[in-house]
C-alpha cells in the first residue's frame, strides 16, 4: 500500500465539475455492466446493487432501469452535499426509479456493510482519485456476494485522442493529469485497473478486461464538453491547484481557453477519451 | 490533395502481417456497421455491400452473416495473392456465406463500378496506408447509393494504452507509426477520419462519429498479439524499413522483442488500441 487512505474528493463539487458528470448515464458510462445486471437480475429477483462514489447519481438512477422489479440500488459518496443533489435527481426520474434508489454517506475504504451484502458493486471514475486504489477494490469485493460482480471503469488521462491538433489542448490534458497526480490520484487508471484488481485478490481467470470510449464530436457535444472544460479553467479546482503548484500561469490558462474555443468551433473536431473497464466475477 | 495516388500496400502480406489480420471479424472490428447493415437489409432485400481493401477477407466473410437472404458482399484488394487467400477463407465458412461473397481486384482510388452501385461501402484500416485518404473516401462515396452508408474504421497509432509501462513497447509503438508515415501513410487516422470525410464532400450532419477499441489482455490474446508483433520485428517489412531509414538498430529490435516477451508473460498486462469509426449516411 502506498499513500494516504484519507478519502478526499480533490476536484470538489463546483458546478464546473459536476456539469459534465451529470451527462453520464448507464448507457454511455456503464455499458460493460448492463448485460451482467440483466443476467444476475434474472437469477436474483431481489438484486442488491451498490454504486460506490455515486456523486450526483445520474449513473445510479440510470442503472435502476436495468434492475428486476424487486431490485434495489444504493449509491454512496463522501459528500452530503452531492448526495442531496443525487436524491433530487433520482426523485425527478419518476416513481419507478425513485422507489428503487437510495443514497448513503460512506467511504470506499470502509464500507459500512457486512460481507457479501450486495450482488453487484460498481464504481465509475472513483479509483483515479484515490492514493490506494487496490485497497478500495478489496473493500468493494468484501461486500460483494459470491457469484456477484465487481464492475469498475476508470479513464486513462494520458489517452486523449483529439483533432484538430492544438497545443493548448495538449497542455490542458497534461495539466489535468498532473493536477490529479498532485492531488494523490492516478492518471493511468484505465490501463492499470486490472493490476489493482489482481492486487486486491482476484484471480486473472475471474476478470474480464476491456476499454470503452467517450466521443465528443457533434456540435452540441462539443459545446457541452468544451464549455465544461472552459468553466473548469475559469473557476475550477484544477485552475487553482495548477497555479498553486506553479505548473500553469494565468496566461497559460487563457491560451488553453482559446484552444477549447477553437476546438468547439471546428466542424471536423473529434475527441476520444479512453476508459479501462473491468468485470470481476466473485467466486 | 497531397502525396502520390499510386496505391501500394506497404506492409505487404508476409505471414507476420496477415496472422493478426485474420483474427478480425465483423464483431470485433466492424461493430459500428452491424446495426446499419441490419436496418438497410430490412429495407433492401438485395442489399449490395462493397468491402474495400478486404485483405484476407475475414471481416468480409463475417459481415455476410448480417445480410438479408438475397444480399451480397464484394471484397476488393490490390493484391491477387491476398484475394486468393480471401476466397479460400470464404469458401471454408460454409455454403451460406460462400454463395454471398465474391472478391475482385481493384484500387480504392478507381473503383471499377458505376455511381451508386452499392448500398453499403466499407473500409477497415485502409485509409491509414494511403497518401490521399480524402480522395479514396470520395471514390467510395461515388459508388454508394442514396440512402446507403459509407462505413470507415481506422486505428490511431499514437494511442496505445499499455500496461505494464515498458520502454521497449513505447519505442515499438513509435517505430510502427514512423514506418507507416515513411511509407506515405497516416498515423493519426482515428482522430482524422471525420476531417477526411468532410473533405470528401460529406455534410457534418450526415456523419456519425465514434471510437471503438481492441483490447488484448487475456493470456491467449497476449500470446497471439504479442507473438504477432514479435514476428513483425523478426521478419516483417517494418523491421527492414526501420533499419533502412536508420530509425532503429538490430539491438533496438532485440530490446523491443524482450519487452513484448515480458508483456506476454505479465498477468496484469493490458493493451488498448483506439480506432476512429465513422458512418456517413449518403443523401
Structural overview:
Two copies of one chain form a homodimer. By secondary structure, chain A is of the alpha/beta class. The first copy, chain A, has one domain (15-281): Rossmann fold. In chain A, 43% of the residues lie in helices and 23% in strands. The first copy, chain A, is built from twelve helices and seven strands. The first copy, chain A, has helices at 15-21, 26-29, 34-43, 58-64, 80-91, 95-98, 133-142, 167-182, 189-199, 219-235, 237-245, 250-265, and strands spanning 48-52, 72-77, 101-105, 118-124, 144-163, 207-216, 270-281. Chain A has a seven-stranded mixed beta sheet, with helices on both faces. In chain A, helix 7 links the parallel strand 4 and strand 5 (144-163). In chain A, helix 10 packs antiparallel against helix 12. Chain A starts with 14 loop residues before the first helix and ends with a strand. At the A-B interface, strand 5, helix 9, strand 6 and strand 7 of A face strand 5, helix 9, strand 6 and strand 7 of B.
Amino acid at each position: 500500500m502506498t499513500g494516504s487512505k484519507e478519502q478526499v474528493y480533490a476536484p470538489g463539487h463546483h458546478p464546473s465539475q459536476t456539469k459534465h458528470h451529470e451527462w453520464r448515464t448507464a448507457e454511455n458510462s456503464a455499458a460493460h455492466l448492463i448485460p451482467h445486471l440483466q443476467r444476475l437480475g434474472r437469477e436474483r429477483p431481489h438484486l442488491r446493487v451498490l454504486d460506490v462514489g455515486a456523486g450526483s447519481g445520474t449513473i445510479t438512477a440510470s442503472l435502476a432501469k436495468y434492475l428486476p422489479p424487486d431490485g434495489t440500488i444504493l449509491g454512496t459518496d463522501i459528500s452530503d452535499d452531492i448526495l442531496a443533489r443525487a436524491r433530487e435527481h433520482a426523485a425527478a426520474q419518476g416513481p419507478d426509479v425513485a422507489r428503487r434508489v437510495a443514497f448513503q454517506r460512506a467511504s470506499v475504504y470502509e464500507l459500512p456493510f457486512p460481507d457479501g451484502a450486495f450482488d453487484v458493486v460498481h464504481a465509475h471514475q472513483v479509483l483515479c482519485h484515490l492514493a490506494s486504489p487496490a485497497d478500495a477494490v478489496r473493500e468493494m469485493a468484501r461486500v460483494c456476494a459470491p457469484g456477484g460482480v465487481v464492475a469498475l471503469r476508470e479513464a486513462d488521462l494520458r489517452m486523449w485522442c483529439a483533432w484538430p491538433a492544438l497545443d493548448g489542448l495538449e497542455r490542458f490534458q497534461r495539466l489535468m493529469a498532473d493536477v490529479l497526480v498532485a492531488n494523490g490520484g492516478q492518471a493511468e487508471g484505465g490501463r492499470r485497473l486490472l493490476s489493482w484488481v489482481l492486487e486486491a485478490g482476484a484471480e486473472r481467470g475471474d476478470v474480464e478486461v476491456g476499454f470503452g470510449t467517450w466521443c465528443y464530436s457533434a456540435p452540441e457535444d462539443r459545446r457541452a464538453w468544451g464549455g465544461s472544460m472552459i468553466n473548469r479553467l475559469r473557476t475550477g479546482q484544477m485552475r487553482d491547484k495548477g497555479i498553486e503548484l506553479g505548473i500553469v500561469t494565468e496566461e497559460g490558462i487563457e491560451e488553453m481557453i482559446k484552444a477549447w474555443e477553437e476546438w468547439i468551433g471546428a466542424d471536423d473536431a473529434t475527441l476520444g477519451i479512453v476508459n479501462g473497464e473491468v468485470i470481476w466475477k466473485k467466486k
